[in-house]
Amino acid sequence: MINIFQPEIPGSSLDMLAKVFDSNWLGRGKLVAEFELRLSQFLNAEKQEITTMSCCSDAIFAILPIIKKRSSARKVLVPSVSFPAVGSAVIDAGLELVLVDVEADTGNISLDAVKQNFDDDVLAVFITHYGGNPVDISGLRGIVGSKVFILEDSACALGSVLDDGTSVGLQGDFACWSFDAMKLLVAGEGGGARIPDRDIRNEFKESLYLGLPASEKSGLDKVDGSSEWWSYELNSFGRRSVFTDVNAASIDEIAVFAPAVVLISSVAKPVAVAAAVVPATLPIKTTVADAPAKTISAFEVKVTVVAVSLVA
Ligand SMILES: Cc1ncc(COP(=O)(O)O)c(C=O)c1O
Q1: What gap in Å lies between CA 278 and CA 27, rounded to an integer?
Q2: Measured from the CB, is residue 59 less than 6 Å from ligand 1?
Q3: Is residue 220 one of the residues assigned to a domain?
Q4: Cβ of 300 less than 6 Å from ligand 1
Q5: Which of 39, 76, 214, 233 has the least CB density, counted as fewest CB within 10 Å?
Q6: Digit-coded pLDDT (tens) for 234-245
Q7: Ligand 1 pocket, 153 CB below 6 A?
Q8: Is residue 287 part of a domain?
């Protein structure tokens, strides 16, 4: 068997894991807060816009019922090549799934197909930055206007940047990343989301933590001697989806990863990749071609390097 994907975990993650175990607190704690801060700095996002959860799929499922409440439109446009959680989440939220063609050369949603399928009943477009290759979000916004939600599945796009250096995931109304065992930042399992709108963000956080108000502390954090730490007012219903300090022991991967992205964008720019890969969902189809030498993701470079070494 040819090993295509190999997680690269720095030794410091193991050291950090030992510290987490020594701390006696393996749940969501200070290390998660630091992870969220470091992630926001890496993305150049506002600190409060970033939150974490058990996995990216949870974020995909959580966002749709929240935006559904804010509009009477019911259609969600989804690229025909997408992670299964997206289509499932649309149906689960009682919304109408509209599958839209992708571009043959990038695997990204076709903006022409968006135009053809667009009408007043479109609530959102849930794009995937396929293999980390950025969708033209400005072009998409130009087509759908300001009232339609643009949701960015950036699961494979951590480290992808636009020509001006903007991180992928900062242009839409929502973005999510995955830190599962097949991604660039490996936390075992885990997900992160960026939500710029404060009200949507708070509802989102509540729905992923039992309906507990986003400003509320839980458990030990609440014990200050005076408060009734056992008593909670719940704002709504919700599940429980938690990124823990054990997962956040991967925090140093952000530091290792950051200079690598700079290196990749300077070294790899002239070598554009025409087709990228979503891990474990499609066969490798990586070709180095004369596609426009604009943006390339760290993920693509990793795949390219593997593919090149396979044919060499
Ligand atoms: C494009 C894409 N979206 C979403 C996900 C879901 O991520 P998670 O495994 O963290 O739920 C994945 C995972 O492979 C993915 O590749």
Answers
A1: 30
A2: no
A3: yes
A4: no
A5: 233
A6: 989 999 999 999
A7: yes
A8: no
Among protein residues, the one with the nearest Cα to ligand 1's atom 14 is: 279
| Domain membership flag for residue 120 | yes
Structure tokens of 82? Answer: 């997408």
Q: Which atom of ligand 1 is nearest to the CA of 179?
A: 10
Total domains in the chain come to: 1
Q: Taking the alpha carbons of 91, 87, 157, 134 in that order, is the dihedral positive or negative?
A: negative
Angle of CA points 283, 288, 291, to nearest 5°:
110
Atom 12 of ligand 1, residue of closest alpha carbon: 155
The structure's pTM equals 0.85
DSSP string over 161-219: B-TTSPBTTSSSSEEEEE-STTSSS--SS-EEEE--SHHHHHHHHHHTBTT--TT---G
Going by their DSSP bridges, the two strands 50-53 and 191-194 should be labelled as antiparallel
Centroid of ligand 1 to alpha carbon of 275 (angstroms):
18
Q: Is residue 213 situated within a structural domain?
A: yes
Best of 54, 56, 90, 241 to mutate for ligand 1, by most ligand atoms within 8 A of CB? 56
For residue 82, give the ligand 1 atom closest to its CA: 1
Going by DSSP bridges, is the β-strand pair 174-178/191-194 parallel, antiparallel, or unpaired?
antiparallel
Residue 228 pLDDT level (bands cut at 50, 70, 90): confident
Work out the pLDDT band at 221, boundaries 50, 70, 90: low
Whichever domain contains 184, its CATH number is: 3.40.640.10
Could you write out the DSSP letters of every residue in 108-134?
Answer: SBPHHHHHHH--TTEEEEEEE-GGGPP
CA 85–ligand 1 middle distance (angstroms): 8
Pocket flag, ligand 1, residue 171 (CB < 6 Å): no
Q: What is the extent of the structural domain holding 110?
A: 11-253
